[in-house]
């Protein structure tokens, strides 16, 4: 059961309630609340608003303000969600209907499963020596669902988007995996909990090359500018998702943000000391959750700001970066980890 001194009496009462009491069990709390499903939903709402607002401010615009103007339009995301919910879902006659409808829902499988493997101090659902490889493997499935979504639409613009996504996928995925392997070589484990425990010195200082590789690959993997090539609003009208409407569009639109949340958590675990840094005694077990999520939020905010300051690359430029500079950097980071491990 959770140990939270400031609210322990309330937790004890909740624990006595059938079924509801499961929420205060550490493993269930990790999956359903934080860093699991509830935290994911809250972060999605915030980061979409933050990206719009911060991009507008940097570019000397206003950003969302029509809905809840006195609090900076923060309820605009909720208004958009309600709009998607009540809009008609149109399945055009040329679509591969079964896949067209099912794939946006099934795409949540590789999003939700990694959350069970991400620890926050004593709060985690599963601990495994292969946790980090499993997390990367599951995250790597998300682009495959995006490609399948574009195929199911049976639309020429969706095809262009899925082909671009396929090219980008192979360009960033290999450097991303190599940078993670470099850190696993450095820590000599794939256990996410052990990785954080071994970080007396943050991973970003132990192997800055792996961090740079992981950061650039994350920007590419999540379709942030200058790498939003698969969607490219001005050219192919949201790429693989061009035929979706209503709540189905809402589901596919947030895939990139969900992937950003997962990769930000993984970046914090590997490079930024995880939940280490400071401890809030009165929060007990929740202190590690707060620190982990706060670091992840800072990473997410820093990445989405790229939308305001970079222009989109051409597909050939992005591929040259992925297969050229990023690949070389990834192998250099792996070599650095091998040398550091051998010398130590």
Explain what the structure shows:
- With 344 residues, the protein is mainly α.
- The protein has helices spanning 8-15, 26-32, 37-58, 76-86, 97-106, 109-112, 131-139, 142-153, 156-187, 192-197, 203-206, 208-221, 233-236, 246-253, 255-271, 286-304, 306-309, 315-343.
- Helix 4 packs across helix 14, helix 8 runs antiparallel to helix 9 (156-187) and helix 12 runs antiparallel to helix 18 (315-343).
- The radius of gyration is 21 Å and the shape is globular.
- The two termini are 39 Å apart.
Topology:
Layout: H1 8-15, H2 26-32, H3 37-58, H4 76-86, H5 97-106, H6 109-112, H7 131-139, H8 142-153, H9 156-187, H10 192-197, H11 203-206, H12 208-221, H13 233-236, H14 246-253, H15 255-271, H16 286-304, H17 306-309, H18 315-343
Helix pairs in contact: 3-16, 4-14, 5-8, 8-9, 9-12, 9-18, 12-15, 12-18, 15-16
Main structural class = mainly alpha
Q: Mean pLDDT, as a whole number?
A: 88
Number of strands: 0
Which regions have little confidence, pLDDT < 50, spanning 5+ residues? none
How far the N terminus sits from the C terminus, by CA atoms, comes to 39 Å
- Spell the H/E element sequence: HHHHHHHHHHHHHHHHHH
Individual helix count = 18
